[in-house]
Amino acid sequence: MVNNYQPGSPFRKIQQIPSVKIDHNIMQSAKISGYWSQEITDKDVGQDGLPDPISIRRDLYIKGRTVRINYDQSLAPTLLLHLGAGVQRYRNPDAAPASISSYDEAGLLGIKGAPGTGYPRIGGGNLGDSTYGGMANQIGPTNRGLYLQVKPTAVSQITWIRGNHTYKAGGEWKIDTFTNKSDIGLSPSFTFSGAQTSQPLYGTTLPGGTAIGSGFASFLLGYYNAAAISNSSDPQYRKSSWGFFVQDTWKLNRKLTLDYGLRYDLQLPERELWRRTSSFYPHIPNPNANGIPGGVFYEGTGAGRCGCLLVPSYPYAIAPRLGVAYQLNGRQSFGRAGGYRIRPPIPSPTSAPATARGWVTTRSTVRRLEMACRRENCRMGSPGIRRRSTGRPPIPACW
Protein backbone atom coordinates (compact mmCIF):
# COMPACT_ATOMS: atom_id res chain seq x y z
CA MET A 1 0.00 0.00 0.00
CA VAL A 2 1.17 3.49 -0.80
CA ASN A 3 -0.01 7.00 0.12
CA ASN A 4 -1.88 5.66 3.14
CA TYR A 5 -0.31 7.85 5.82
CA GLN A 6 -0.57 11.60 6.37
CA PRO A 7 1.95 12.89 8.95
CA GLY A 8 0.65 15.48 11.39
CA SER A 9 -0.29 16.14 14.98
CA PRO A 10 -1.67 18.99 17.13
CA PHE A 11 0.83 21.83 17.58
CA ARG A 12 1.57 23.35 20.97
CA LYS A 13 2.96 26.84 21.64
CA ILE A 14 2.75 28.72 24.94
CA GLN A 15 4.48 32.09 25.21
CA GLN A 16 5.02 34.49 28.11
CA ILE A 17 6.54 37.98 27.82
CA PRO A 18 6.69 39.68 31.26
CA SER A 19 8.59 42.97 31.68
CA VAL A 20 9.32 45.49 34.45
CA LYS A 21 10.63 49.07 34.28
CA ILE A 22 11.62 51.16 37.29
CA ASP A 23 12.69 54.82 37.52
CA HIS A 24 14.06 56.35 40.70
CA ASN A 25 15.27 59.89 41.41
CA ILE A 26 18.36 59.54 43.55
CA MET A 27 18.59 63.31 43.97
CA GLN A 28 17.22 66.38 42.27
CA SER A 29 19.87 66.25 39.57
CA ALA A 30 20.28 62.48 39.10
CA LYS A 31 18.10 59.49 38.41
CA ILE A 32 18.54 55.79 37.78
CA SER A 33 16.33 53.53 35.71
CA GLY A 34 16.20 49.80 35.20
CA TYR A 35 14.51 47.49 32.76
CA TRP A 36 13.98 43.73 32.80
CA SER A 37 12.10 41.57 30.35
CA GLN A 38 11.85 37.88 29.63
CA GLU A 39 10.39 35.94 26.75
CA ILE A 40 9.63 32.27 27.35
CA THR A 41 8.41 30.08 24.51
CA ASP A 42 7.32 26.52 25.22
CA LYS A 43 6.51 24.68 22.01
CA ASP A 44 6.98 21.48 20.05
CA VAL A 45 8.01 21.18 16.41
CA GLY A 46 8.26 18.32 13.94
CA GLN A 47 5.13 16.53 15.10
CA ASP A 48 4.55 13.59 12.77
CA GLY A 49 2.04 11.52 14.73
CA LEU A 50 4.50 8.69 15.35
CA PRO A 51 5.20 7.43 18.87
CA ASP A 52 8.48 7.92 20.70
CA PRO A 53 11.24 6.96 20.10
CA ILE A 54 10.76 6.78 16.32
CA SER A 55 9.19 10.25 16.09
CA ILE A 56 11.21 13.19 14.81
CA ARG A 57 9.46 15.64 17.17
CA ARG A 58 11.46 18.10 19.25
CA ASP A 59 10.67 19.95 22.49
CA LEU A 60 11.76 23.58 22.68
CA TYR A 61 11.80 25.65 25.86
CA ILE A 62 13.31 28.94 24.66
CA LYS A 63 14.29 31.71 27.06
CA GLY A 64 15.32 35.24 26.17
CA ARG A 65 16.20 37.83 28.81
CA THR A 66 17.11 41.50 28.67
CA VAL A 67 18.45 43.50 31.62
CA ARG A 68 19.46 47.15 31.38
CA ILE A 69 20.42 49.92 33.83
CA ASN A 70 20.72 53.62 32.95
CA TYR A 71 22.09 56.51 34.99
CA ASP A 72 21.52 60.18 34.16
CA GLN A 73 22.86 63.19 36.04
CA SER A 74 22.96 66.92 35.46
CA LEU A 75 26.52 67.76 36.43
CA ALA A 76 25.79 71.43 35.74
CA PRO A 77 22.83 73.38 34.32
CA THR A 78 24.25 72.89 30.81
CA LEU A 79 26.13 69.60 31.32
CA LEU A 80 24.39 66.23 31.24
CA LEU A 81 25.94 62.77 31.80
CA HIS A 82 24.39 59.51 30.62
CA LEU A 83 25.67 56.00 31.40
CA GLY A 84 24.09 52.71 30.49
CA ALA A 85 24.86 49.01 30.66
CA GLY A 86 22.93 45.87 29.92
CA VAL A 87 22.99 42.29 28.75
CA GLN A 88 20.85 40.16 26.47
CA ARG A 89 20.77 36.39 26.80
CA TYR A 90 19.10 33.84 24.54
CA ARG A 91 18.93 30.08 25.17
CA ASN A 92 17.32 27.64 22.75
CA PRO A 93 17.62 23.89 23.48
CA ASP A 94 16.38 22.65 20.10
CA ALA A 95 16.57 18.93 20.70
CA ALA A 96 14.61 15.70 20.77
CA PRO A 97 13.01 14.86 24.15
CA ALA A 98 14.75 12.54 26.61
CA SER A 99 12.56 9.60 25.57
CA ILE A 100 14.34 9.76 22.18
CA SER A 101 17.78 11.20 22.93
CA SER A 102 18.37 8.95 25.99
CA TYR A 103 17.17 5.76 24.32
CA ASP A 104 19.50 2.83 25.07
CA GLU A 105 20.22 1.62 21.55
CA ALA A 106 23.01 -0.70 22.78
CA GLY A 107 20.91 -2.54 25.36
CA LEU A 108 17.56 -2.54 23.53
CA LEU A 109 18.61 -2.82 19.89
CA GLY A 110 22.07 -4.35 20.20
CA ILE A 111 23.70 -1.42 18.33
CA LYS A 112 27.04 -0.92 20.06
CA GLY A 113 29.99 1.39 19.55
CA ALA A 114 28.19 4.76 19.42
CA PRO A 115 29.75 7.56 21.54
CA GLY A 116 26.42 8.29 23.24
CA THR A 117 22.80 7.27 23.59
CA GLY A 118 19.76 7.95 21.43
CA TYR A 119 17.48 6.18 19.01
CA PRO A 120 19.20 5.59 15.66
CA ARG A 121 18.63 8.14 12.91
CA ILE A 122 17.23 6.41 9.84
CA GLY A 123 17.12 8.70 6.84
CA GLY A 124 13.85 9.49 5.15
CA GLY A 125 13.22 8.83 1.50
CA ASN A 126 15.16 5.55 1.37
CA LEU A 127 12.86 3.23 3.31
CA GLY A 128 10.21 3.00 0.64
CA ASP A 129 8.85 4.27 -2.66
CA SER A 130 5.57 4.84 -4.43
CA THR A 131 5.68 1.38 -6.07
CA TYR A 132 6.30 -1.04 -3.24
CA GLY A 133 5.40 1.16 -0.26
CA GLY A 134 7.41 1.45 2.90
CA MET A 135 8.27 4.44 5.09
CA ALA A 136 8.97 7.71 3.28
CA ASN A 137 9.67 9.87 6.34
CA GLN A 138 12.74 9.90 8.54
CA ILE A 139 12.54 8.28 11.94
CA GLY A 140 14.63 9.05 15.00
CA PRO A 141 16.04 12.39 16.19
CA THR A 142 16.66 15.14 13.64
CA ASN A 143 18.36 17.63 15.95
CA ARG A 144 20.04 17.63 19.35
CA GLY A 145 21.35 21.18 19.57
CA LEU A 146 21.78 23.93 22.13
CA TYR A 147 22.04 27.50 20.87
CA LEU A 148 23.27 30.21 23.23
CA GLN A 149 23.70 33.92 22.62
CA VAL A 150 24.95 36.44 25.19
CA LYS A 151 25.43 40.11 24.35
CA PRO A 152 26.71 42.53 27.02
CA THR A 153 26.63 46.22 26.06
CA ALA A 154 27.64 49.55 27.58
CA VAL A 155 27.21 53.17 26.46
CA SER A 156 28.30 56.56 27.76
CA GLN A 157 27.54 60.08 26.59
CA ILE A 158 28.07 63.61 27.82
CA THR A 159 26.19 66.62 26.48
CA TRP A 160 27.29 70.24 26.92
CA ILE A 161 25.22 73.22 25.82
CA ARG A 162 27.17 76.43 25.31
CA GLY A 163 25.61 79.37 23.52
CA ASN A 164 24.35 78.24 20.12
CA HIS A 165 26.30 74.98 20.32
CA THR A 166 25.26 71.58 21.65
CA TYR A 167 28.36 69.41 22.02
CA LYS A 168 28.11 65.66 22.46
CA ALA A 169 30.76 63.00 23.00
CA GLY A 170 30.43 59.36 23.90
CA GLY A 171 31.19 55.76 23.19
CA GLU A 172 29.76 52.27 23.13
CA TRP A 173 31.04 48.74 23.66
CA LYS A 174 29.52 45.33 23.04
CA ILE A 175 30.44 41.67 22.67
CA ASP A 176 28.42 39.30 20.52
CA THR A 177 28.77 35.67 21.56
CA PHE A 178 27.29 32.57 19.96
CA THR A 179 27.56 28.94 21.03
CA ASN A 180 26.30 26.19 18.74
CA LYS A 181 26.49 22.88 20.56
CA SER A 182 25.36 19.77 18.72
CA ASP A 183 25.03 16.19 20.02
CA ILE A 184 23.26 14.79 16.97
CA GLY A 185 26.17 12.49 16.11
CA LEU A 186 26.12 10.66 19.45
CA SER A 187 23.47 8.26 18.13
CA PRO A 188 24.22 6.31 14.94
CA SER A 189 22.83 7.28 11.57
CA PHE A 190 21.82 4.65 9.00
CA THR A 191 20.77 4.96 5.39
CA PHE A 192 19.25 2.16 3.34
CA SER A 193 18.93 1.61 -0.39
CA GLY A 194 17.78 -1.01 -2.85
CA ALA A 195 21.38 -2.01 -3.66
CA GLN A 196 21.47 -4.62 -0.90
CA THR A 197 18.29 -6.38 -2.14
CA SER A 198 18.88 -6.07 -5.88
CA GLN A 199 20.69 -8.47 -8.26
CA PRO A 200 24.49 -8.33 -8.08
CA LEU A 201 24.76 -8.60 -11.86
CA TYR A 202 22.51 -5.72 -12.90
CA GLY A 203 22.37 -3.59 -9.76
CA THR A 204 19.12 -1.73 -9.10
CA THR A 205 18.01 -1.54 -12.76
CA LEU A 206 17.40 -4.42 -15.18
CA PRO A 207 18.43 -4.11 -18.85
CA GLY A 208 14.81 -3.42 -19.75
CA GLY A 209 14.71 -0.43 -17.41
CA THR A 210 12.78 -2.05 -14.58
CA ALA A 211 13.93 -0.92 -11.13
CA ILE A 212 14.60 -3.70 -8.66
CA GLY A 213 15.61 -3.75 -5.03
CA SER A 214 13.85 -2.01 -2.16
CA GLY A 215 15.24 0.17 0.57
CA PHE A 216 12.43 -0.96 2.85
CA ALA A 217 13.32 -4.61 2.21
CA SER A 218 16.96 -3.85 3.01
CA PHE A 219 15.80 -2.21 6.24
CA LEU A 220 13.72 -5.26 7.23
CA LEU A 221 16.77 -7.48 6.61
CA GLY A 222 19.09 -5.15 8.52
CA TYR A 223 21.32 -4.45 5.49
CA TYR A 224 22.21 -0.76 5.68
CA ASN A 225 23.96 1.07 2.87
CA ALA A 226 25.90 3.57 5.03
CA ALA A 227 26.33 4.43 8.71
CA ALA A 228 27.88 7.33 10.60
CA ILE A 229 28.61 8.51 14.13
CA SER A 230 30.46 11.54 15.51
CA ASN A 231 31.40 13.25 18.73
CA SER A 232 29.74 16.36 20.11
CA SER A 233 30.71 19.70 18.60
CA ASP A 234 30.76 22.86 20.69
CA PRO A 235 32.13 25.88 18.80
CA GLN A 236 31.99 29.19 20.65
CA TYR A 237 32.27 32.44 18.70
CA ARG A 238 33.10 35.92 19.99
CA LYS A 239 32.99 39.33 18.33
CA SER A 240 33.90 42.61 20.08
CA SER A 241 33.04 46.13 18.94
CA TRP A 242 33.96 49.61 20.16
CA GLY A 243 32.72 52.99 18.96
CA PHE A 244 33.47 56.62 19.88
CA PHE A 245 32.07 59.88 18.56
CA VAL A 246 32.14 63.67 18.96
CA GLN A 247 29.40 65.87 17.59
CA ASP A 248 28.30 69.49 17.54
CA THR A 249 24.89 70.94 16.68
CA TRP A 250 25.47 74.60 15.82
CA LYS A 251 22.44 76.84 15.45
CA LEU A 252 23.80 79.57 13.17
CA ASN A 253 20.58 81.57 13.20
CA ARG A 254 16.85 81.14 13.70
CA LYS A 255 16.43 79.08 10.51
CA LEU A 256 19.81 77.49 9.82
CA THR A 257 21.34 74.62 11.85
CA LEU A 258 24.59 72.81 11.14
CA ASP A 259 25.49 69.33 12.43
CA TYR A 260 29.01 67.99 12.13
CA GLY A 261 31.02 65.35 13.91
CA LEU A 262 33.40 62.43 13.77
CA ARG A 263 32.95 58.75 14.65
CA TYR A 264 35.49 55.98 15.09
CA ASP A 265 34.64 52.27 15.11
CA LEU A 266 36.75 49.23 15.85
CA GLN A 267 35.09 45.92 15.01
CA LEU A 268 37.03 42.74 15.52
CA PRO A 269 36.15 39.83 13.22
CA GLU A 270 34.22 36.95 14.72
CA ARG A 271 36.58 34.30 16.09
CA GLU A 272 36.21 30.95 17.77
CA LEU A 273 37.03 31.13 21.47
CA TRP A 274 39.68 28.39 21.40
CA ARG A 275 41.01 29.24 17.91
CA ARG A 276 39.52 26.11 16.37
CA THR A 277 38.95 27.78 13.01
CA SER A 278 41.04 26.50 10.12
CA SER A 279 41.78 27.58 6.57
CA PHE A 280 43.60 26.33 3.49
CA TYR A 281 47.08 27.59 2.70
CA PRO A 282 48.77 26.61 -0.59
CA HIS A 283 52.38 26.81 0.60
CA ILE A 284 52.50 24.59 3.67
CA PRO A 285 53.33 20.87 3.31
CA ASN A 286 50.45 18.47 3.62
CA PRO A 287 51.46 15.50 5.84
CA ASN A 288 48.60 13.42 4.41
CA ALA A 289 49.90 13.85 0.84
CA ASN A 290 53.62 13.06 1.27
CA GLY A 291 54.46 16.69 1.98
CA ILE A 292 52.97 18.13 -1.20
CA PRO A 293 52.28 21.89 -0.72
CA GLY A 294 48.72 22.75 0.16
CA GLY A 295 47.20 21.97 3.53
CA VAL A 296 45.06 23.12 6.43
CA PHE A 297 46.32 25.27 9.26
CA TYR A 298 44.88 26.92 12.37
CA GLU A 299 45.26 30.50 13.57
CA GLY A 300 46.88 31.43 16.88
CA THR A 301 50.18 30.43 18.42
CA GLY A 302 51.52 27.04 19.47
CA ALA A 303 52.04 23.64 17.92
CA GLY A 304 50.24 23.16 14.62
CA ARG A 305 49.28 26.83 14.34
CA CYS A 306 50.41 29.53 11.98
CA GLY A 307 51.28 32.22 14.54
CA CYS A 308 48.83 34.55 12.80
CA LEU A 309 45.18 35.56 12.58
CA LEU A 310 43.00 34.36 9.73
CA VAL A 311 41.26 37.74 9.53
CA PRO A 312 43.13 40.84 10.74
CA SER A 313 41.49 43.85 12.35
CA TYR A 314 41.34 47.23 10.63
CA PRO A 315 42.11 50.09 13.08
CA TYR A 316 41.34 53.13 10.89
CA ALA A 317 37.53 53.10 10.52
CA ILE A 318 36.98 56.86 10.80
CA ALA A 319 33.71 58.44 9.67
CA PRO A 320 33.23 62.22 9.44
CA ARG A 321 29.61 63.36 9.19
CA LEU A 322 27.95 66.62 8.13
CA GLY A 323 24.33 67.76 8.13
CA VAL A 324 22.53 71.01 7.33
CA ALA A 325 18.94 71.95 8.21
CA TYR A 326 17.17 75.08 6.97
CA GLN A 327 13.65 76.13 7.89
CA LEU A 328 11.91 77.44 4.77
CA ASN A 329 8.84 78.71 6.61
CA GLY A 330 6.94 78.01 9.76
CA ARG A 331 5.90 74.52 8.69
CA GLN A 332 8.49 73.25 6.21
CA SER A 333 12.11 72.30 6.66
CA PHE A 334 14.82 71.41 4.17
CA GLY A 335 17.55 69.08 5.33
CA ARG A 336 20.62 67.60 3.74
CA ALA A 337 23.10 65.25 5.36
CA GLY A 338 26.15 63.41 4.13
CA GLY A 339 29.02 61.35 5.36
CA TYR A 340 32.22 59.63 4.35
CA ARG A 341 33.69 56.61 6.04
CA ILE A 342 36.56 54.22 5.62
CA ARG A 343 35.92 50.68 6.75
CA PRO A 344 37.52 47.27 6.19
CA PRO A 345 35.76 44.23 4.77
CA ILE A 346 34.74 41.87 7.57
CA PRO A 347 34.56 38.39 6.02
CA SER A 348 33.71 35.22 7.84
CA PRO A 349 36.75 33.68 9.56
CA THR A 350 35.98 30.35 7.91
CA SER A 351 36.14 31.74 4.39
CA ALA A 352 38.88 34.37 4.46
CA PRO A 353 42.52 33.52 3.70
CA ALA A 354 45.22 34.34 6.19
CA THR A 355 46.62 36.98 3.85
CA ALA A 356 43.36 38.96 3.72
CA ARG A 357 44.30 42.62 3.85
CA GLY A 358 43.18 45.97 2.56
CA TRP A 359 40.25 48.31 2.93
CA VAL A 360 37.41 49.69 0.89
CA THR A 361 35.70 53.06 0.93
CA THR A 362 32.03 53.80 0.85
CA ARG A 363 30.35 57.15 0.41
CA SER A 364 26.74 57.95 0.99
CA THR A 365 24.79 61.18 0.70
CA VAL A 366 21.18 61.44 1.75
CA ARG A 367 18.92 64.27 0.64
CA ARG A 368 15.63 64.79 2.40
CA LEU A 369 12.74 67.15 1.88
CA GLU A 370 10.11 66.62 4.55
CA MET A 371 6.96 68.35 5.71
CA ALA A 372 7.05 69.33 9.39
CA CYS A 373 4.85 67.37 11.74
CA ARG A 374 1.38 68.76 12.22
CA ARG A 375 1.13 67.12 15.60
CA GLU A 376 2.39 68.76 18.78
CA ASN A 377 5.78 67.58 20.08
CA CYS A 378 6.55 65.63 16.92
CA ARG A 379 9.92 63.91 16.55
CA MET A 380 11.42 62.92 13.23
CA GLY A 381 14.80 61.35 12.79
CA SER A 382 16.16 63.89 10.33
CA PRO A 383 17.74 67.33 10.72
CA GLY A 384 15.61 70.41 10.58
CA ILE A 385 12.36 69.35 12.27
CA ARG A 386 11.40 71.87 14.97
CA ARG A 387 9.15 71.21 17.91
CA ARG A 388 6.51 73.86 17.50
CA SER A 389 5.19 73.66 21.07
CA THR A 390 8.58 74.06 22.77
CA GLY A 391 10.44 76.11 20.19
CA ARG A 392 13.58 73.97 20.60
CA PRO A 393 16.22 73.78 17.88
CA PRO A 394 15.92 71.22 15.09
CA ILE A 395 16.52 67.65 16.24
CA PRO A 396 19.90 66.41 14.91
CA ALA A 397 20.26 63.21 12.97
CA CYS A 398 21.23 60.15 14.99
CA TRP A 399 24.89 59.27 14.54
What does this 3D model show about the protein?
With 399 residues, this protein is mainly beta. It has three helices and 20 strands. It has helices at 98-101, 105-109, 215-221; strands spanning 13-16, 19-27, 30-45, 58-76, 79-92, 121-122, 127-129, 133-135, 145-162, 165-182, 189-191, 226-228, 236-251, 256-267, 271-272, 278-286, 292-298, 317-327, 332-343, 360-371. Strands 1, 2, 3, 4, 5, 9, 10, 13, 14, 15, 18, 19 and 20 form a 13-stranded antiparallel beta sheet that branches. Strands 6-11-12 form a three-stranded mixed beta sheet, with no helix packed on it. It has a two-stranded antiparallel sheet with strand order 7-8. The model is unreliable at 344-399 (pLDDT under 50).
Would you spell out the secondary-structure blueprint of this structure?
Elements: E1 13-16, E2 19-27, E3 30-45, E4 58-76, E5 79-92, H1 98-101, H2 105-109, E6 121-122, E7 127-129, E8 133-135, E9 145-162, E10 165-182, E11 189-191, H3 215-221, E12 226-228, E13 236-251, E14 256-267, E15 271-272, E16 278-286, E17 292-298, E18 317-327, E19 332-343, E20 360-371
Keywords:
399 residues, disordered C terminus, 13-stranded antiparallel sheet, 20 strands, single chain, 3-stranded mixed sheet, mainly beta
Percent helix among the residues?
under 10%
Radius of gyration: 31 Å
Tell me the structural class. Answer: mainly beta
Number of helices: 3
Instruction: Name the poorly predicted regions.
Output: 344-399
Mean pLDDT: 81
Approximate strand percentage: over 45%
- H-E order: EEEEEHHEEEEEEHEEEEEEEEE
Give the beta-strand count.
20
* Measured distance between first and last alpha carbons: 66 Å
Gross morphology is: elongated
Largest sheet: 13 strands, antiparallel
